[in-house]
Design brief:
Two copies of one chain form a homodimer.
Chain A lengths: L3 H8 L3 H9 L6 H13 L6 H8 L4 E6 L4 H17 L3 E6 L7 H8 L5 E5 L17 E4 L9 E5 L1 H14 L5 E5 L5 H16 L9 E3 L4 H12 L7 E4 L2 H13 L9 E3 L16 E4 L1 H18 L7 E4 L1 E4 L23
Helix pairs in contact in A: 1-2, 1-3, 5-11, 7-8, 9-10
The structure holds a DNA duplex.
DNA sequence: TTGTATGCGTTATCAT
DNA sequence: ATGATAACGCATACAA
């Protein structure tokens, strides 16, 4: 492996001079400069990142801690993170926290000396490790919330989104709106439930526990919950699922039960995953720009890294948008056009 | 930041002893050992990865270079990579190659001194950077192929998969089977085309250029190609799309043109993305386990890292599987059950 | 069983 | 404008 010494020897200069040329620090004669660049290029010299960061104490790498999640969300958030990171000259090191008990703390230990900061997602509400993360490393919490406000955090505006969707359903004439809730101790789930209840309250409708079922954020959970709702003495006329997967499960259950959507039952979801617009009928949902979420998280983190000490902790949220398709019974504004960006493998 | 020196001072021993205890190298008295562990724990000491790798010349990090791709493939391959990497005590540093001209080479430079090896995906066929990658770093090519066989590579068994699907279509009685091809210079696209032609040849059918249209791997491309096929004087009775996105686009075109699927036109795709089973009718396709792809890539790389010199370059392929649903006109074997693993956001 | 000293590849400081 | 050298945090060969 060719080091700075090799370049220096070949050019008959000291390593200091080579370093100066390659980093543009300090004055070097034009001729020497030219010679060194030429040699470095010819030798294919590349500075050793580890060694460099040892002395600069900057790695230009950002750590990303994600829970063990599947699908579109995962890739979109990474896309957003990576794009912004690269624009600032940073790379991403990714680690799934892989359901280990210790959670974030262990993972953050493993990252020490390897990264300049961490974006961590830990949506489990009573994850205690969030309370005592050593703030030695700049950290941004994603879709999670810590007790106290010692940490930067970026979340989806779940509450407002859910509230808006419920309002929309009610404006369509629905008085009995059920919710299929997300995983019990999940932050996003809790917030969406809160938004749902506020939405009802706004319209003077009293929430009923019987209309609040749990679906665990999975398709199967949504399916089961929908079935249960159909069995109710007083059926709801609309179902708001706390994510699209559950809404899709509900759609299956309704179809198999011969219940017309939206005719006999309106359905809405949350997230706007790509599948949503392909459902039959196309699913009304609350869109959140996952990509933006990632981008803004990196921006917050970079901010925390550069300001370091005099940094004021912030809490931010990314906005959501109600997307009306046919499943809720309103006029469908959107019809599925062949997407030009969606290609799966390539 | 607490270093090994801090621990040593606190424990009244030399840094060497601390190092020995923490790495289990060399003999240390039980008592000292206990004391050091206790102190290291209390001080929350964590070895500095960069410094350590400087001397051990191992980072325990694997680099991953991916093209700018969307969706499910991206997340699945990362999942496979990460799972296997973590099982071997490695982390992943991910970089999307972001359409820069220089391609792999630049990215690999940036990784020097940061990783022990690289998994790179560069499906563009005439990417010249693939010919002269400096083999200073263990490298596994994913879904790509290099001139010569100097490099390890892992690809999807595109050809066999396409061939099997075409055979299936023909067994259903189709004599005129069209293909919607993928991006012109894409490796997977080229192989799937080859498999298609072989499949025809197996049945003694002569390939017709008029039945080989290009869809660029996008949904819109599939849509346009299907329309064009419908305009043909001698229409095909079956369409094999080189990926699911294009098949889905074709499905839209057929529906809008009032062509019954599979009655008047059979359709099949490739990849088995999650959307596939939700189509109307559910899409027959060729399944490939992306997750496995990632897992095996890491295994190959780790292999190359440990064997280093006496390492023989290998080319491997991951198998595919024909998945019969309704869109091709055979009896549908599979019906969409509510998936228990598919949850989008959480 | 433990300590001392060297070096990993780089940047930064201080000379010259 | 350039060179010598210390320092970054750690592991390890060698000495004790």
């Amino acid at each position: 492996m060719v080091t700075i010494k090799d370049v220096a020897r070949e050019a008959n200069v000291s390593v200091a001079t080579v370093s100066r040329v390659l980093n543009g620090s300090g004055p070097v004669s034009a001729e020497t400069q030219r010679r060194i660049r030429e040699i470095a290029g010819r030798l294919r010299y590349v500075p050793h990142g580890g060694a460099r960061s040892l002395i600069t104490s900057r790695t230009e790498i950002l750590g990303v801690l994600l829970p063990d999640l599947y699908g579109e969300f995962f890739s979109e958030v990474i896309r957003g993170l990576d794009e912004t990171a690269q624009r600032h000259g940073f790379h991403l090191i990714i680690s799934r926290s892989h359901a280990s008990k210790h959670g974030i703390e262990t993972a953050m230990r493993a990252m020490r000396g390897r990264v300049d900061g961490v974006v961590a997602m830990s949506p489990d509400l009573d994850e205690e490790s969030l309370t005592n993360v050593p703030s030695t490393l700049p950290l941004v919490l994603l879709c999670s919330v810590s007790r106290g406000d010692a940490l930067d955090s970026l979340t989806i505006d779940n509450c407002r989104g859910a509230r808006a969707m419920v309002k929309h359903l009610i404006s369509l004439g629905h008085q009995r709106v059920a919710i299929i809730k997300g995983a019990p101790r999940n932050y996003d789930a809790a917030e969406r439930l809160r938004g749902y209840r506020l939405g009802l309250k706004d319209a003077g409708i009293k929430p009923e526990r019987a209309l609040e079922l749990e679906g665990g954020f999975t398709e199967a959970g949504g399916y089961a919950a929908a079935l249960q709702l159909l069995g109710l003495a007083e059926r709801p006329t609309a179902i708001f699922a706390a994510n699209d997967s559950m809404a899709i499960g509900a759609l299956s259950a309704l179809r198999e039960s011969g219940v017309q959507v939206p005719g006999q039952m309106a359905v809405a979801g949350f997230d706007d995953i790509p599948l949503a617009r392909y459902m039959d009928p196309p699913l009304s949902t609350v869109r959140v720009s996952i990509c933006d979420l990632g981008a803004r998280a990196v921006e917050m983190l970079l901010n925390g890294i550069t300001s370091k000490n005099e940094h004021r902790r912030k809490r931010e949220q990314v906005a959501t948008e109600v997307v009306i398709r046919s499943s809720c019974g309103a006029q469908s504004v959107e019809r599925p056009p062949p997407s030009t960006t969606n290609s799966d493998l390539h």
